[in-house]
Every structure is written in C-alpha cells, then in structure tokens.
Design goal:
This protein is of the alpha+beta class. Among the domains are: 94 residues, no CATH class; 157 residues, no CATH class. Helices cover 45% and strands 12% of the residues. The strands form 3 sheets. A 4-stranded antiparallel sheet has the order 2-3-6-4. Helix 1 crosses helix 2 and helix 10 crosses helix 11. The protein is globular, with a radius of gyration of 25 Å. The two termini are 20 Å apart. It comes from Candidatus Naiadarchaeum limnaeum. It holds the Pfam family Thy1. This is FAD-dependent thymidylate synthase.
Amino acid sequence: MISDEETAGPLNYEIVSPAPKIQLLRYFDKPFDFSISAARTCYSPRVINTEEVTADQKQRIGGGCFEGGHHTVFQHATFSFGLENVSRHFVWSFLHSHPFYNSEQSSQRYVRLNEIKATIPQIEGKENQNLYKKAVTRAWETYNQLTDLLLEDVVKIHEEIFNKKVADEKERKKLSKKAIEIARYVTPIAAHTSMVHTISGLTLYRLHKVINTMPTQWEQRIVIGEMVNAVKKADPDFFMFVQDPVPLEETPEYKFFQEQTQKTQPNSENFISEFDSQLGNYRSKLVSYLEEGPALMADAVRATMGLTKNQMSDNEAIDSVLNPSKNVYLTEALNVSTLSPLMRAMNHPYFVFKKKLSHTCDSQNQRHRMTSASRPVMVFVDTKKPDYITPYQITRNSEAQKVYDEFMKENWEYKNGLLENGVPIEHAQYVLPNALTLRLVESSNYLNLYHKWRLRSCLDAQREIWELTIEEMEQVGKIFPQLLKYSGPDCMVRFKAEVRPFCTQGNLWCGQPVWAWKKLETEKRAN
C-alpha cells in the first residue's frame, strides 16, 4: 500500500521520541450491553437488542460468561484504534504475535524515514542515554547513505527489465522506494510506526492479561494500558469482570530467565550453532511433514463428494482442488478457500519448517497469521558478535556491502556497551537493526501455506521473503509433486487457467512475464 507521504525530503538528524499516541477511532455503541444481548440470544427464539439488557443481567450473565469461560460473547464488541509512536519491536514481539487482529501499518518499504523517530526506553544515566541516541542516529545516517548508494543499482535494473531509460526525476523518486526497502535493514527495531489496529473485546482482555510478557513489557504497559483506558472511558462496564494482569515475576518466561541467569550468563552461541547446523545450506528447511498428507487430502475430497476410491483416484481428487482450470475459486481476487467445501481438504497435509530470517522479514512473515510460529524471546538469544542478514542487493554492491558490514559491527558495539554499563538487556536490544537474525520454528497446513506461497512468490514481494518461499516450495515439491503442480504466484495460476489479465498488479507489475516461466528460480529474479 503506497502512502500519500512517500516523497523523499531532507533527513533530520534530531531524534524525535514522542510518547505513544493511542486513539479509540471506532467502536460499537454500548459494547458490554451488546455482549450481554448476544449471550441472551443463545437462550432466546429471537435476537435480543442492547436496549433490553438490564443492570442485573450485566452482573449475572456477564459474570457467569466471564468466569465460566464462555468468552465468545465478548468477541462481538470490536474496537478500532489509531496507534502512533510505537516501536516496531513492540509490534513484532507482542501486538502481532497472535492471529486475532487486523492492522494497516505504515510501511518502511514505501515511506521514507526522513525523521529519526524512535522509542527511547527509560535508561538511567546521561552517558547511557547518549550512547543509545548515538546508536540510533548512526543507524539513520547509514540508512540515508545506503539509499543513495543503492539508487543507481535500482535504476539500472529497472532500465534493463523494462528496456527503457529512466528519464525524469519523478520516476527516480518512485524507484527510490526500492532503495529504501533495502536500506531499511539498518534502521533500529526501536523505529516508530503507526497503524490502524482493530481487535475484538476478547482480544483486548487477553492482551491486558499478559501485558507483562517479556521482552517489551514496559512498552506494552503503556500502549495496552492506554487502549484499555480508552475503552473504559467509552464504556466503564466493559472491564467489569476482568482481573489484573499476571505480574511479570509470575510469567513463565521471566521465571525461566531468572533461573537461567542464576545458573550462568545468557549465551546463545551454542543454540545458534546447533540450529544453523541443522539448517545446512537452507534458510528455511522442511524438518517434518505428514507423510500421508496427500492421501488424506484425497480422502477428504472423496468424503466431501461422497465418492469411493474406485470412482476417484488420489491424483484426480487432488487435481479437482488445485487445478485452476477446474477450480474457479483459485482465480478469484478474494481468498475463499476456507469457505469452499472442496478446498477445505487442503487442511490435512501438514508441514514444519525451521527458519532463519531477519527481524524485518519476519515482521512480514508473521502477518500470515495462520502459519503459526514459535518465535524467540529476544533476551534469550542475544549475541555479543554481530548476527545479521544481508540483503541480496547489498551483496551486489561492494561499497554498500562495506558500509553495511561496518555499521553492523559498530551497532553491536553500541548494544554491548549499553549492557556493560548495566542497561537491562530488554532496553539495550532496541538499538539492534532490522537485519537482526531470528531463528524460529513454523508450521502450517497446506491450505494456509498455499495462500502464503501464492502471495510471497510474486516478484513484487521483497527478495528475502521471496527466497524463503521458493526454498519451501521446492522442498515440498520434491516430496509431493502433485501438491505443487499448479503452484506459484497469482499470475502463474491465472495463466494456467487462461484467465486474463495474468498479472493483477496494474502499474506495480514486476516487468517480467513470470507466468511463462517453467519454474520459479532465484537466478531468474533481477532485483
């Protein structure tokens, strides 16, 4: 999504760190009454309206539903918040760490970071505060430097793909977004972001309950606390039965952290060595899968249609779902797979991957909420040595590579310096870059992987997540070729169904006729 405020301007090296700004933009009128009316409707031959809810019913039914675990009634009340001046680290670590939300977030791929806007934790001591600010400022300086260094590469690749010269400044500015999406790897995870964030009342209850979960608990208390206060102001009854958050000291992650630090100083080098050796040459490695997955999918198709194996073979059953010339839903703009009786058969094949990717890439990756992952609590995986991902485009530019590597070395020195000065690790890590390496375990059924792969195998996807997608598709395709026979980006699927236009991205077309490729290969991608 392209912002209205995407044009480049002069970079301001003055750090701006306003407090989080939380607005309750939209909500249901009388949300608690609405929840109780929904609960009453369960035991009524008609729909109960909010006007019919009494004070006694709010106490009796509301308390009974909450204490009894009948929490779906609190999902009907929905709240849309405007969040500004919150860190990307908090968003990744907490706000987007679960599947039950909807966000439209300011994109670092399309919005140039002209201001140094970043979260500054409550760090004691002037020396430490200055060290933190210096680390953040250096990141922005390097971001600007890399943007300039990479722009000519971006322009050259664009000219080669589209076979025409980039003549005017307006077009160069548009192409600069390709440069900033690479340069953003050096910006800190403390960088501010803004978004519209919509959740149900039940999700807000849950966020409030685990507000002290590590490692961004101090920022969570501010942001979630303000969200809760805004809802209480709109409807004082809505938190009538909600108990206090679990104290930090009682959370399982904190207890584990305390036990480990009493035994030994945190050192994740052994974990990293073991994890990376298991990956081998992969960045996303298939480590487990359901061997009978395709057979189960075929069985599910036959169960849906009331057919025997003699009437429909496994390959015929799978083809009836995945062949875009037979399944019209595959060429629709809307993803209706969970609503199609036939396509629900894709739920049964299952896959598990171990993955190594950057913080910024996983911020995209985790938006695929139905492909669930066990992500690291960052305080457990801190490294003294730089541990980061380098974008492909930087490896192609020796000057940019030198600037990038020197910055990473310097950035870790800043972080280590903060730790040596006694700054809590959860605060010091905010200066780490978007390029920070994360290692995680991710699993999903084929229905949700298919949707994710289709979106992220498009050449408009950023290269890092695109390469991970290609690795995953290749590995699954070797084991179960029948599942990957028609897979690929949207244009490939539409081409196989002979539905035009093959590419639906309009003027965002990548410039390459990917639909005609026999195979998706990293060597064929120019950018």
